[in-house]
Amino acid sequence: MISKHGFETTELRSLQMSKIRSQNTKPEILLRKALWKLGYRYRIHAANLPGKPDILFKAKKLVIFIDGTFWHGYKWHEKKFKINSNIEYWTNKIEKNMDRDVQNQTKLLALGYSVLRFWDFEVKKNIGDCIVKIQQCLK
Predict the structure, then answer these.
(1) In the chain, at which end, N or C, are there fewer CB atoms within 10 A of the end residue's CB?
(2) Could you tell me how many helices (H) and strands (E) the chain has, helices first?
(3) What is the C-alpha to C-alpha distance for residues 90 and 84, in angstroms, rounded to an integer?
(4) Do 109 and 61 contact (CB within 8 A), yes or no?
């Protein structure tokens, strides 16, 4: 099977990749529920802001992103050499994502927003630390 991106892939791989969410991921929901339980109110996926932040505290001008380790290039300088198939496609895709993250963060800072970024595994393993960082920014 030829993918819409022009490279060879299996139907199973295509199906697996199509099920990966870009919004409302498990780490996002986990963090949002924890914040809500603590009494914090926020907006999600603010389409009018660069990068559509996962969580927005408008009054405090704080935005939060929860980044997936693969899609946003966690330890990319090490991991990019471990890609086994469609190397050029995935390298370009991840590096463009990383560049876009930097551009969006620069735009948000220029608009006067504070930006917090958490890796998905940080939220899953150390949600308490994430909450503390958020609370410090909301003071």
Answers:
(1) C
(2) 6, 4
(3) 10
(4) no
What is the per-residue pLDDT across 44-102, written as a single tens digit (0 to 9) for each? Answer: 999 999 999 999 999 999 999 999 998 899 999 888 887 888 888 889 999 999 999 99
The reported pLDDT for the residue numbered 35 is 98
In whole angstroms, what is the distance from residue 40 CA to residue 103 CA? Answer: 28
Q: For residue 133, count CB atoms less than 10 angstroms from its CB and return exposed for 0-12, middle for 13-18, buried for 19 or more.
A: middle
User: Is residue 66 a contact partner of residue 52, using CB atoms and an 8 Å limit?
Assistant: no
Nearest to 115 by CA among 81, 66, 79: 66
The answer to whether 137 and 114 are in contact (CB under 8 A) is: yes
User: Based on the number of CB atoms within 10 Å of its own CB, is 67 exposed (0-12), middle (13-18) or buried (19 or more)?
Assistant: buried
Query: Where exactly are the structural domains of the chain?
Result: 22-138
Q: What is the pLDDT of residues 28-43, one digit of tens each?
A: 999 999 999 999 999 9
- The Cα 96–Cα 94 span in angstroms is 5
Fold (CATH) for 22-138: Endonuclease; Chain A (3.40.960)
